[in-house]
Design a protein that fits this description.
The protein has 275 residues and is α/β, with parallel strands linked by helices. It contains eight helices and eight strands; from the N terminus they run ααβαβαββαβαααβββ. It starts with 12 loop residues before the first helix and ends in a 6-residue tail after the last strand. The chain binds S-adenosylmethionine. Keywords: Methyltransferase, Transferase.
């Protein structure tokens, strides 16, 4: 008898995405706002000149939804999209892309191993940081890969700081997402992991501090509209323009965050005390 697989754990998630790759687009497509929110995040990165002359990196690109959002914000940029799941990448590669987009198989925790070297003019990590084993090291790696002054956007579920967000998240997961996964994908393991991992992941305040500790500045957090308001957030940080300022590992000022007030839809600058 084949032993029943154990619960999905952080660090081994990409393998589970292999099994869910064929149904992934259908499931996220029925989540209202999924693509629109990704586009909101890439727009918030403020990439200039339609991306002309820029090199961008999409970490954990999956089936290419986040890559398409990057392309939407910067259609003239050169985009490298990396994922550790062969099957998710295969789904992405089945779509039509301009020649400026390339897909690479690799681990987000060690991008150099896949020949991903900077500098990049912007990095997007959508729904992936939460899944990594060594999140601080990954953020420091993103910092190193960025050109001074260039932005990092982390697009993630972050519900820990708000009881209301945790209740809405749990209700939507168990009332809609998990039952839908049972019907469409025939298994719920990945989506039960999704529920659990988002509850365990950093709140807005802790992730903002984590970004600051990794050397990022101009940290801003904005949420998205829809049922995901105060649940999905764009975390933006910038590698300091002056190479002498706040290198990773050096002491940096902690952002001052009021967790409950942290994510009005219009966004806040968490480097300044809320007024
Ligand atoms: C929830 S999907 C998000 C995909 C895409 N960014 C989007 O917004 O639709 C997370 C992706 O991260 C990938 N992933 C998880 N751990 C990874 C790792 N250590 N390195 C690279 N990719 C990873 C998974 O294979 C999966 O495709």
């Amino acid at each position: 008898m084949t032993p029943k697989p154990g619960p999905i754990e952080r660090g081994g998630v990409a393998r589970s995405f292999d099994a869910h790759a064929r149904t992934y687009d259908k499931l996220v497509g029925s989540n209202p706002g999924y693509h629109e929110h990704l586009r909101l995040t890439t727009k918030r990165m403020g990439l200039p000149d339609r991306g002309a002359g820029l090199r961008l990196l999409d970490v954990g690109c999956g089936t290419g939804a986040s890559t398409a959002a990057l392309l939407d914000a910067a259609p003239e940029a050169e985009i490298t999209a990396v994922d550790a799941s062969h099957e998710m990448l295969a789904q992405a590669q089945r779509k039509t892309w301009p020649r400026t987009v390339r897909f690479v198989h690799g681990n987000a925790e060690n991008l150099a191993m896949s020949g991903i070297v900077g500098p990049y003019d912007g990095i997007l990590a959508a729904y992936v940081l939460r899944n990594l084993l060594h999140q601080d090291a990954a953020l420091r790696q993103f910092h190193r890969l960025l050109r001074p002054g260039a932005p990092l956007a982390i697009h993630e579920y972050s519900v820990r700081d708000s009881l209301r967000s945790r209740i809405v998240w749990t209700t939507v997961c168990w009332g809609v997402i998990i039952p839908m996964a049972r019907i469409r994908a025939g298994s719920t393991d990945l989506y039960r992991y999704l529920w659990r991992s988002a509850l365990q992941f950093d709140g807005v305040s802790d992730l903002s501090k984590r970004l600051a500790s990794a050397g990022f500045e101009d940290i801003r957090v904005q949420t998205v509209p829809g049922w995901q308001q105060h649940i999905v957030h764009t975390f933006l940080g910038r590698r300091p323009p002056d190479p002498g300022a706040a290198a990773p590992g050096e002491a940096v000022a902690e952002p001052d965050v009021d967790a409950e007030a942290a994510t009005p839809a219009e966004g806040i600058d968490v480097t300044k005390p809320p007024s």
